[in-house]
Design brief:
Structural class: alpha+beta
Largest sheet: 5 strands, antiparallel
Order of helices and strands: EEEEEHHHHHHEEEEEH
Shape: elongated
Radius of gyration: 25 Å
Number of helices: 7
Strand order of the largest sheet: 4-3-2-1-5
Number of strands: 10
Helix content: 10-25%
Length: 287
């Protein structure tokens, strides 16, 4: 019998042949995936050390079946028959959950060990969730959402097409001004912000851009014929924010100042090398 993190251990009923108990494998004790396993049972949410008997088998993740997982163990005779785990219709790629968990964890400045401790799971399993296409149980998502201060719906990508801030305000909300240093710290997280410019015909426009915060300056790349190119040599406003619907809180930073085009080839090359991402709109954006 061999398993991977995230596989399901199923204990069959000797009378009916159906599943008597099942759980998610959240810990391995041998590199080759042989027993024993740390199993989080779906009926109690408890984690126990399990030495599977002849009435147990593994349900492998469909996309993580290495050669030989369906073979019988020559030493124990225990069957390791593989079966396919199907996903409900209409759900996204299981890898999306891991990416959202990793992004939320980093945004809150938490290590994998800290997050795993809060969620009462193995750090190795959390690493597996973040790096592999996995389909964690609802109980696992509930614990992760609680550990990260977000919601299960957010980790699943629910409401991704809706604007943030639609949840109810807190009973006693508080609004406070951020210090200049707090603003710089929040700006330095980089990501997507909005540039407010006056277009060629004098009308205002607000355009989202991928940006970097370099040496106390806000930097973004665009195309010469774009709306944001009109920012060059003018006074502009730049805004970045984050809204947490799960906690009904957020922050916003507004910067105002002169914009200029970076023309020195060496400086342009250095900024491109330090960029955390390429512009999401694609195309040639070298300005």
């Amino acid at each position: 019998m061999r398993a991977h993190l995230g596989d399901q251990l199923v204990i069959e009923s000797p009378t009916t042949g159906g599943a008597r108990r099942d759980g998610e494998i959240v810990g391995l004790h041998h590199d080759d995936g042989t027993p024993p396993y740390d199993v989080r049972w779906s009926d109690t949410d408890d984690v126990t050390l399990v030495f599977p008997g002849p009435d147990a088998h593994i349900r492998h993740l469909e996309h993580e079946q290495p050669p030989g997982v369906g073979e019988a163990s020559p030493t124990t005779g225990e069957a390791a028959a593989a079966s396919t785990v199907t996903r409900p219709a209409g759900t996204g790629s299981p890898g999306d959950i891991g990416r959202r968990v990793a992004v939320e964890r980093r945004r809150r400045g938490l290590s994998r060990e800290e997050t795993a401790g809060r969620a009462r799971m193995s750090p190795y399993y959390l690493a597996y969730l973040e790096e592999q296409p996995a389909d964690p149980t609802l109980a696992t998502l509930i614990r992760l959402a609680d550990a990260l201060g977000t919601s299960v719906a957010a980790l699943r990508g629910g409401g991704i097409d809706l604007p943030p801030g639609q949840s109810q305000a807190l009973l006693h909300p508080q609004l406070r001004d951020l210090s200049p240093q707090e603003c710089r710290t929040l700006l330095s997280t980089h990501g997507v912000g909005r540039v407010a410019v006056a277009t060629a015909d004098g009308r205002p426009a607000v355009v989202p851009v991928n940006y970097e915060f370099v040496d106390d300056a806000i930097v973004f790349r665009t195309a010469p014929d774009s709306v944001t190119a009109a920012a060059a040599e003018t006074e502009v406003a730049f805004e970045v924010d984050h809204v947490d619907d799960a906690l009904s809180q957020g922050w916003s930073v507004l910067a105002v100042g002169p914009a200029r085009e970076v023309t020195d080839p060496e400086a342009v090359r250095g900024l491109a090398q330090r960029a955390h991402t390429t512009p999401w709109p694609g195309g040639k954006r070298e300005m």
